[in-house]
Amino acid sequence: MKIAVYSAKPYEKPFLDAANTPPRDADGRPTHDLIYLDAPLSAATVDLARGCPAVSIFVGDDASAPVLRALHAGGTRLLALRSAGFNHVDVEEADRLGITVLRVPAYSPHAVAEHAVGLMLTLNRKFHRAFNRVREQNFSLDGLMGFDLHGKTAGVIGTGKIGEVVCKILTGFGCRVLASDPVKNAACVSMGVEYVALEGLYARSDIITLHCPLTPATKHLVSAAALAAMKPGVMLINTSRGAVVDTRALIAALKKGHRGGVGSVGLDVYEEEGDLFFKDLSAEVIQDDVFVRLLTFPNVLITAHQGFFTREACAAIATTTINNASDFERDMVNEANRVGAKLIASVPVNH
Ligand code: NAI
After folding, report:
1. Which of 87, 120, 246, 279 is least crowded, fewest Cβ atoms below 10 Å from its Cβ?
2. Is the shortest distance between the CB of 337 and ligand 1 below 6 Å?
3. Burial class (CB in 10 A: 0-12, 13-18, 19+), 59
4. Does the pTM of the predicted model rise above 0.85?
5. How does pLDDT run across 208-266, given as a tens digit for each residue?
6. Annotation says 194 is catalytic
7. Looking at ligand 1, which residue's alpha carbon is closest to its atom 8?
8. Computed over its alpha carbons, how large is the radius of gyration of the chain?
9. Given phi > 0 = left and psi -120 to 50 = alpha, else beta, which region is 153?
10. H-helix or E-strand spanning residue 71
């Protein structure tokens, strides 16, 4: 099957090619005809997929209703997401058009969980600053003091696959772990995680880490009011989706500094990351003033959506994507990977 692979980066092609090799068809051709496209999917690029029964996209691509309608008109019937998150897809419109949407619901929760904890450790012990200092032969420790993670209280919002691994790692560090999730995870309960209301989590946590999906209920969950309810000096980590945090409110809370504001922030995602992340903009003038303001804080550490970026996760994403396409072609879709009305209805809206 011809698959237009949008936003295809050089680092993922070998994984997709490897996943696409066995089994070959009778003529020795790879399973699918992968057409790699550097461009993201958008209204401007949708025509590149004309005649492709399948299209594969990543998190920065635009699968809004008009784009889906154009894909459908060009003959596309499968949208194969190379991600777990599907907030960039108009699922109702896809359902209406009869476009099957399949995702990679789990590839490596460890990749994202370890990245979240990496952000915590780096922010706390300031490895990034120490690295630069030592290279400049500045061996002073001024400004590098951190705190023991052991004995601190960590609040985990969303204890699904990734949140569970975060709970396990933080429990290993000797943290007391609080959690908020409309659905309790038995594995977390058995490791001693205490489920509390959000207000309690905000009031008691020294570190708060977000692992819930972006839904209407979680959009700007971390609002000005939520930030004001957090402990002064709290460390906030977001590796879920940018819009779970109200960035302008976050900047206001950071500006309070030692006067009761947020202590430090680690972000792997950003509300408007679509215009920035996954691109080399080092020679460009960034127009997003909110993002540029975030970059100026010494206590903010940003990575460009790389939580998923391990060899194991990339291999798993590629394998599931190719399998999703093969299953679709054989009319044997793996229902666990389907993104549709049923999945949307199962996403909890209360918190
Ligand atoms: P999951 O579906 O296993 O877990 C999500 C959990 O969030 C569920 O337990 C759900 O009940 C809970 N939840 C839903 N609404 C909530 C609310 N209002 N308050 C608290 N909890 C709520 O998903 P998984 O695999 O753990 O991924 C979590 C999120 O991480 C994804 O939705 C995605 O946005 C993000 N992600 C980020 C990546 C990165 O590279 N930075 C890579 C993969 C996922």
Report:
1. 279
2. no
3. buried
4. yes
5. 999 999 999 999 999 999 999 999 999 999 999 999 999 999 999 999 987 878 999 99
6. no
7. 160
8. 21
9. beta
10. helix 65-73
Question: Is the CB of 161 inside a 6 Å radius of any atom of ligand 1?
Answer: yes
Secondary structure of residue 187 in the 3-state scheme: helix
- Strand ranges in the chain using DSSP code E only, listed in sequence order: 2-5, 33-36, 54-57, 78-81, 100-102, 153-157, 176-180, 194-195, 207-210, 235-238, 264-267, 300-302
Q: Which CATH number fits domain 2-107+310-346: 3.40.50.720, 3.60.40.10, 3.40.309.10, 3.30.750.210?
A: 3.40.50.720
Ligand 1 centre to CA of 211 (Å) is: 5
The reply to whether ligand 1 has any atom less than 6 angstroms from the CB of 160 is yes
Q: Which residues pair with 55 in a beta bridge?
A: 4, 79
Q: How many CB atoms lie within 10 A of CB 287?
A: 9
Residues in the chain: 351
CB-based contact 17:66 (threshold 8 Å): no
Q: Is 74 in the pocket of ligand 1 (CB under 6 A)?
A: no
Fold classification of 109-302 (topology level) = Rossmann fold (3.40.50)
Q: Mean pLDDT throughout 3-26?
A: 90
Q: Which two tokens stand for residue 54?
A: 């399948």
